[in-house]
Amino acid sequence: MSNSTQISVTQAQDFITKVLVANQVPIQDAKIIGDLMVRSDLAGADGHGIFRTPSYVKRIKSGGMNLAPNIHIEREFGGTALLNGDNGFGHLVMQKAVDIATAKAKENGVAWVGSHHGNHSGAASVYVRMLAERGLIGIYMAVGNANHMAPWGGIDLLLSTNPIAIAIPAHQRPMVVLDMATTVAAYGKIKLAAMNGKKLPEGWMIDQQGQPLTDPLRANEGSLLPIGDYKGYGLALMVALLAGTLNGGAAGNETIDFNADFASKTNTGQLVIALNPACFGDPQFIFEKVTQLVTDIENSRKLPGVEKIHIPGVGSAATEAKRRAEGIPISAELRQALNKLATESGVEQI
């Protein structure tokens, strides 16, 4: 980030809350959204946190978001539920999905809660972390809010970054958390690179001739590459079917590009799965075994030149601790955009 400075967690939450309230979001909802947005920043997912505030406000002003949604269960059977987000903020929809999944997993051992007519809700890890903090194993999938990936070997953009996140509690160490897009890079990183005037590494995007695309300002001319070539494409397709098609959410040609269209309903499809480890044994023993396995991996032999074997979740836990102590880094470009929004909203700048 160019000339980045830090703002405290409280400053970030207060700023988001005040801007949202100034734009007609009820204060209790604004506080929840502000907290969940900043959790993305704390996890190091800078493309999903406070950075998104201007685009959310633009969507509100364009009439693309329902500020008084009736988020409700539309269908329910045993450990499953289908949630209608009523075009509300995605953060509110997923908060309710997590709460429903928690209750159902504690009653039934497992819960699968799908949702439709939601909106962008930030980093996937936010919601599986919430489940792990409650002693559950959490799984999350979603159809991204814009198509940025072509099918393997194709040109037409029919798939999104379609993220997957999994969180498993551990004993006396950070929870194990995987949060990944099914593309090599999340599109939020492309937007950040464009804002900060940086080139993209080769291997993130290709143009319609299959050549590397490194200019983020030309991102709309190309396709994000899937992880693992055709395997990542297949995984993205399955997420689209499970989180989108199964739930009645948008996928494929029905997907609305929320980076370009701020007025249409995105009908975002998402799902949360919660597992109660008590169904499989003593949770304490299970989480001790989790710790044993990841510790063995951390301490295993390394290739020449490798300093550390990384365990998913350790880096984000360290980032959160650092940012809670030192603040969330904000680039000069982002600060300028946020302060412009503050002036337009009639609230104090950061």
Notable characteristics:
10 helices, Ribosomal Protein S8, Chain: A, domain 1, alpha+beta, two-stranded antiparallel ribbon, 39% helix, seven-stranded mixed sheet, Hypothetical Oxidoreductase Yiak, Chain: A, domain 1, 350 residues, single chain, globular
SSE blueprint:
Elements: E1 5-7, H1 9-22, H2 27-42, H3 53-61, E2 72-77, E3 80-84, H4 90-108, E4 110-118, H5 125-133, E5 137-142, E6 164-168, E7 176-180, H6 187-195, E8 205-207, E9 222-224, H7 230-245, E10 268-275, H8 283-298, H9 314-326, E11 328-330, H10 332-345
Parallel strand pairs: 3-4
Antiparallel strand pairs: 1-11, 2-3, 4-10, 5-6, 5-10, 6-7, 8-9
TL;DR of this structure?
By secondary structure, this protein is an alpha+beta fold.
Instruction: Give the beta-strand count.
Output: 11
Calculate Rg over CA atoms.
20 Å
Portion in strands: 15-25%
**Overall CATH architecture of the largest domain:** 2-Layer Sandwich
Kindly give the count of domains.
2
| DSSP summary: helix tally | 10
Q: Main β-sheet, in a few words?
A: 7 strands, mixed
Overall helicity:
25-40%
Characterize the overall form: globular
Mean pLDDT: 96
Stretches with pLDDT under 50, minimum 5 residues: none
CATH superfamily membership of the largest domain: Malate/L-lactate/L-sulpholactate dehydrogenase, NADPH binding domain
